[in-house]
Write a sequence for this structure.
């Protein structure tokens, strides 16, 4: 919880600049393979549930679009140059067969890496519009949930600093452990096919 509290203080101490820094940090974690749960929780602590969820969602969406567009603009031509055409055609058929419902479901499955999905879909032939709306809708539940978690932790910590610190640390460890386990389980399932 101390880590979350320190990040929260960093934002609140920056004054109005917090309204620029928080979305930029969300954009950064959406582009790079970094967990977005911690900054989402900090957004909840600093901005409250509604604005915090908005900052988390908008930053995640902008970062996803940036990743997609970079992959589409420069990654796709490189992939076409270095990968066999049959492999790219197979990936496009898979994305097409999944359809919008499969793409939306992929956003809701915790073992599917958010950043990898953004970059990978940029390499595919998925229409931009489909990527945008499935991403916008698919990341909303997580943005709200983790922001609300931070809002509750912030209130609890202010009322009970020692217990809040212990609870926050335990929750952070549990989140990181669960994320690692789910991703490993997803990777093992993929390898066994």
């Amino acid at each position: 919880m101390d880590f979350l509290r320190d990040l929260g203080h960093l934002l609140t101490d920056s004054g109005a600049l917090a309204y620029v820094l928080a979305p930029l940090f969300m954009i950064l974690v959406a582009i790079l393979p970094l967990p977005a749960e911690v900054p989402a929780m900090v957004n909840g602590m600093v901005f409250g549930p509604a604005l915090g969820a908005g900052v988390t969602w908008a930053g995640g969406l902008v970062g996803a679009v940036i990743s997609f567009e970079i992959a589409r603009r420069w990654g796709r031509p490189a992939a076409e140059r270095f990968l066999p055409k049959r492999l790219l055609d197979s990936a496009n058929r898979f994305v097409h067969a999944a359809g919008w419902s499969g793409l939306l479901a992929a956003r809701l499955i915790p073992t599917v890496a958010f950043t990898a999905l953004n970059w990978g879909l940029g390499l595919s032939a998925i229409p931009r519009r489909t990527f945008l709306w499935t991403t916008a809708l698919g990341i909303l539940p997580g943005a709200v949930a983790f922001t609300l978690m931070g809002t509750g932790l912030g209130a609890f910590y202010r009322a009970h600093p020692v217990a809040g610190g212990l609870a926050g640390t335990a929750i952070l460890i549990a989140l990181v452990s669960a994320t690692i386990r789910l991703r490993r389980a997803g990777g093992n399932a993929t390898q066994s096919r």
Q: What stands out?
A: The first helix runs from residue 2 to 13.
